[in-house]
Amino acid sequence: MIDFILNQPAVIKREDIMAVYEAGPEVVIKLINALIEAIIELKEQVKALEEKLNKNSRNSNKPPSTDGFLKPKSRRQRSDQPVGGQKGHPGHTLRMVDNPDHIIIHRASRCNKCGSSLEETPATGYERRQVFDLPPIKVEVTEHRAESKICPHCGYLNKAPFPEEVQQPVQYGPRIKAIAVYLSQYQLLPYERTSELFADLFSHQLSAYPKNIKTMVR
Fold first, then answer.
1. If DSSP states are collapsed to H, E and C, what string results for the chain?
2. d(CA 130, CA 172)
């Protein structure tokens, strides 16, 4: 009787409830316990579904393509100020610098009017334009070699110590570790995307991800 009631697709009918009541206290107790177990199971299923829905590329290893069209909530407080730069704000306009890192001279080698050579003609002035950019970034490998020397007086084999930060035959340096930790912990990039970013920007594939990045975080 209890299984029949629990498998009802809609509201339990009055006559079915009365049949349980008339069957005695033990049957009523069994029905209540069965209903409690069913409620607990349903609550666990709802919790699992909520956790699955709340996962995205920022808090798990899921790719961004699975995020859907959910718009993240802004942490900024609403303000009566207009959008954009505020009046009196100094701004950050890109300006020329007095001492650029590199200077490239583009020479006027021939007259645009008569075609005469200007190779030996000194320049009377320059029109300046500056380009702000990042230099090519690549991973550099530094090899440490600790000398071994045999003492000519006593024959003892002496080995120079390696720097304290050089602990392994092959390892990553502090700058790569810092960038990897920043991307994975502060920017919340999944381990796989952090490794892809290193390959795209620095032409270096992080070895053994995500294990290597997890080791850097410790």
1. CHHHHHCCCCCCCHHHHHHHHHHCHHHHHHHHHHHHHHHHHHHHHHHHHHHHHHCCCCCCCCCHHHCCCCCCCCCCCCCCCCCCCCCCCCCCCCCCCCCCCCCCCCCCCECCCCCCECCCCCCCCCCCCCCCCCCCCCCCCCCCCCCEEECCCCCCEEECCCCCCCCCCCCCCHHHHHHHHHHHHHCCCCHHHHHHHHHHHHCCCCCCCCHHHHHHHC
2. 35
The single residue listed with the structure tokens 């009523």 is: 28
Q: At which residue do the structure tokens 């390959």 appear?
A: 199
* Spatial separation of the C-alpha atoms in residues 217 and 111, rounded to whole Å: 62
Q: How far is the CA of 46 from the CAs of 11, 42, 59, in angstroms? A: 21, 6, 20
**What gap in Å lies between CA 216 and CA 181, rounded to an integer?**
7
Q: What is the pLDDT of residues 114-124, one digit of tens each?
A: 999 999 999 99
Using the structure block, give the residue that is written with the tokens 């570790």: 177
pLDDT value, residue 149: 95
Q: Give the pTM.
A: 0.46
